[in-house]
Automatic annotation (TrEMBL):
Keywords assigned by UniProt, alphabetized: Metal-binding, Zinc
GO molecular function (one): metal ion binding
GO cellular component: plasma membrane
The species this protein was found in: Aplanochytrium stocchinoi
Name of the protein in its database record: Uncharacterized protein
Pfam family, one: LANC_like
UniProt binding sites for Zn(2+): 389, 437-438
């Protein structure tokens, strides 16, 4: 066992306990109990981070000095804003699911958790309005007495908006330290994206436009990868497009843009998405020829002169976002040119290049189920990184994307995904923390994608084995919080810290309830 990982006890001495959990999930009442357990775990983390953020806000307002604001990857404020948006999505879905629950005990527990969320979220909006933590009796004002969830969703969105406004104000005051970057998670573009969901903020829209221009010209990016490159800009555009429409339909009063302006902005976003996609494809095709490798990779990208394969800096992350763009705006729109015949040819080329890359990635897979860090592992070194940024956990979401499609090779993709998940199950309990990028919750997402894309597609029986493994990773992460909390540099953040675990728990609760999960934060829209 590598010193990078903790031993998974459920593979050996606690294997019987895992089998009991799997059997337990076979009943609807048990799955409802798990929904509540996972939701409670997420709420507890929101409470922890909220207390930390409140202290930072009050300290800032009582003592002079600048508050350091960071993007979604490292930032406490922006990460919490994003997490409350995720909380709203989760509660919106679960409230509908709980309308059919007959157990009074489960309903009462669900209502209590909703009340807790309203209390936690309300503390932030109260503090930002009054510059103090102590304002009024939270318990008296925040009791949720129904399960329609609308009060909770509204409060979560209000809090997400307030945190985004607070963060954006500091960005504009030039206290932000990463303004030279242009991507969703590693720059202020993520904060700008959160802002434009709720209001027609000209400075935030302008910031996104600057990022798009940089991505298309490719002059400042240095790469096409997800964390720092063009794919990171594309993910921001896809995020705004999806959630802008969702919030408009959910609670129109929270969006200050008119219907006409909203439609115009969506059209503008689609055109920006098309431009960035085409730039990414053009660079990938050109690099594939320049790097003089075999032709099985129709697209190739480089980061620091290395052809990385994984999600954060490599081909898998770029392909995932490209495929999402195809699904969101349509292949025909992305390939649209004046000549219809040329459009058809371009559409076929886009599809063929992406599929060729998927097949090439599968060919790279080790017998262990893991993948190399680089597309062309010249030295033949079997690298053992098992984390979202490098290794099988970041490639599994891409494999699942194609495994659920009706294509002739979906069985091959499913087999590859299952092999990769087996590798994560054995080696995925990381010592680096509980976060997303290189932590336990990021690896745990492997099982959620497999559960939704593979297990739920099986016609013979409902298999909850992947969900059970995700639950084990969540339980393990929570049990190790005292030990692992301070390991990352930013322990409260989304990608390094506990907010990633909260989003993971939200998605566990959604899949356990039979709802569609949201997906890996800032990766899936």
């Amino acid at each position: 066992m590598s010193n990078r990982y903790l031993e998974n006890p459920y593979c050996n001495e606690r294997k019987d306990e895992f089998m009991e959990l799997l059997q337990y999930l076979g009943t609807e009442d048990a799955r409802t109990g798990q929904v509540l357990n996972s939701l409670e775990g997420a709420v507890n983390i929101l409470d922890i981070v909220t207390k930390h953020v409140l202290k930072s806000i009050v300290k800032q307002t009582t003592k002079s000095g600048s508050l350091r604001i960071r993007g979604l990857y490292k930032g406490d404020f922006s990460g919490l804003s994003y997490s409350f948006l995720r909380a709203a999505s989760t509660i919106e879905a679960l409230a509908k699911s709980f309308e059919n629950i007959s157990s009074k005990k489960s309903l009462a527990r669900f209502q209590n958790l909703l009340s807790e969320i309203v209390i936690i979220a309300g503390k932030i909006t109260d503090c930002l309005e009054s510059d103090t933590i102590e304002r009024r009796d939270d318990r008296k004002r925040s009791k949720v007495t129904s399960i329609d969830g609308i009060k909770v969703v509204q409060q979560c969105l209000k809090t997400s908006h307030a945190l985004a406004q607070f963060s954006w104000a500091h960005v504009l005051s030039e206290t932000y330290v990463e303004a030279e970057r242009h991507t969703f998670v590693e720059s202020d573009v993520g904060i700008a994206a959160l802002m434009v969901l709720f209001e027609n903020n000209k400075s935030a829209i302008s910031r996104i436009n600057v990022a798009v221009t940089s991505a298309i010209k490719h002059t400042e990016m240095g790469s096409s990868e997800l964390l720092y490159g063009q794919a990171g800009v594309l993910s921001a555009l896809l995020f705004v497009r999806y959630h802008k429409q969702r919030l408009k339909n959910l609670i129109p009063i929270l969006t200050s843009t008119s219907s006409e302006n909203s439609e115009n902005y969506t059209t503008s976003l689609d055109n920006d998405i098309k431009a960035v996609v085409r730039s990414i494809l053009s660079i990938g095709a050109s690099n594939s020829l320049k790097m003089n490798y075999d032709s099985k990779f129709g697209l190739m990208y480089s980061w620091h002169d290395s052809d990385y394969l994984g999600a954060a800096h490599g081909l898998a992350g770029i392909l995932y976002v490209l495929k999402t763009a195809v699904d969101v705006v349509g292949l025909s729109f992305l390939s649209e040119v004046e000549d219809k015949q040329d459009s058809s040819s371009l559409a076929a080329t886009i599809k063929d290049n992406i599929l060729a890359c998927i097949d090439a990635i599968v060919d790279c897979q080790y017998a262990s189920g893991n993948f190399p860090t680089r597309c062309h592992n010249i030295e033949g070194k079997k690298e053992k990184l098992v984390q979202w940024c490098h290794g099988s956990p970041g490639i599994i979401p891409l494999l699942c994307m194609f495994a659920r499609e009706d294509c002739e090779k979906n069985r091959i993709y499913r087999a590859s995904c299952e092999s990769a998940c087996a590798n994560v199950w054995s080696n995925g309990l990381l010592r680096k923390g509980v976060g997303l990028c290189h932590g336990i919750s990021g690896n745990g997402y492997s099982f959620l994608y497999a559960q939704e894309s593979i297990a739920m597609k099986r016609e013979d029986t409902m298999d909850y084995s992947f969900l059970a493994k995700a639950i084990v990773f969540s339980k393990f992460a929570h049990s190790k919080l005292p030990e692992l909390f301070d390991v990352p540099d930013h322990p409260y953040s989304l990608f390094e810290g506990v907010l990633g675990l909260a989003c993971f728990d939200f998605d566990v609760s959604l899949l356990a309830s039979g709802c569609k999960m949201v997906g890996f934060p800032a990766f899936s829209v």
